[in-house]
Amino acid sequence: MSSGIGTLGIIPGGTDNDLARTLNIPNDPKKAIETILKVNKKKIDVGFANDNMFLNIASIGLDSEIVKNTEKIKSKIRGRFTYMLGLFNTLFKYRNKKIQVPLDNIIIDEEIMFLQLAMESIMVVE
């Protein structure tokens, strides 16, 4: 994996804004812009899953189903409670997923609730 230099200014606009929260970026757009203009630089790593780049986390299972259902709800309802509606909607319908994931020299072959790839660790919940 190679490294490079780039600049990314983040103005939070998502449902949960997890990356912005992790990087201590204010949710208020004006304050986020002030943070960008102060040139408050931080180094962050990126991860790759199936040749797709991600920041912060990538997940399979329950977490990604919640996001998918929340996006459906956001097309009809806007507001801070869309994620909670997506969460409860998913919890009542979700069934564990059968996965096979190669990791280093092993293959995880399990029925899981979710798998989350974080920049520093992998967490599996069965």
Give the strand content: 25-35%
- Helical/strand content category: alpha+beta
**Uncertain segments:** 121-126
Give the topology string: H per helix, E per strand: HHEEEHHEEEE
What is the oligomer described by this structure? single chain
- Estimated helix fraction: 25-40%
- Find the CATH topology of the largest domain: Tumour Suppressor Smad4
Taken together, the total number of domains comes to: 2
Find the count of extended strands (DSSP E, 2+ residues): 7
Distance between the termini: 30 Å
Shape: flat
CATH architecture of the largest domain: Sandwich
Q: Residue-averaged pLDDT, rounded? A: 79
Strand order across the largest sheet:
3-6-7
Radius of gyration: 17 Å
Q: Count of helical segments? A: 4
Question: CATH class of the largest domain, please?
Answer: Mainly Beta
Q: Sheet with the most strands? A: 3 strands, antiparallel
